[in-house]
Design a protein that fits this description.
single chain; 78 residues; 0% strand; globular
C-alpha cells in the first residue's frame, strides 16, 4: 500500500494523498487510516468531524475498526 509505505518512510503528506485516493475508491482500510490521521492531527490539522466522517464511511463497509472508532467518537460526543 503506497500510503502505508509513505507513512513508514515519514512522508505524511504523500501518505495522506495516497490514503485519500484509496479511500475515495472504496478502500475501508484507507478510510480508517485517514480517520486516525485526522483524529490525532497527524500530518493534517486535528479535525474530529473529518475523523468521524472517515470512520463512519469505513463502518458503512463493515470495517470492524471503523465501527469501533466511530462508536468511540460518538461516545466522546463528536
Amino acid at each position: 500500500n503506497l500510503g502505508i509505505d509513505a507513512e513508514n518512510a515519514g512522508d505524511l503528506k504523500t501518505a495522506i494523498v495516497w490514503h485519500t485516493k484509496a479511500a475515495e475508491n472504496g478502500s475501508d482500510g484507507a478510510m480508517v487510516n485517514l480517520g486516525m490521521f485526522y483524529e490525532k492531527g497527524k500530518g493534517v490539522p486535528q479535525d474530529w468531524v473529518q475523523a468521524l466522517r472517515w470512520y463512519e464511511a469505513a463502518a458503512a463497509l463493515k470495517n470492524p475498526t471503523g465501527i469501533q472508532n466511530a462508536a468511540n467518537c460518538h461516545n466522546h460526543g463528536w
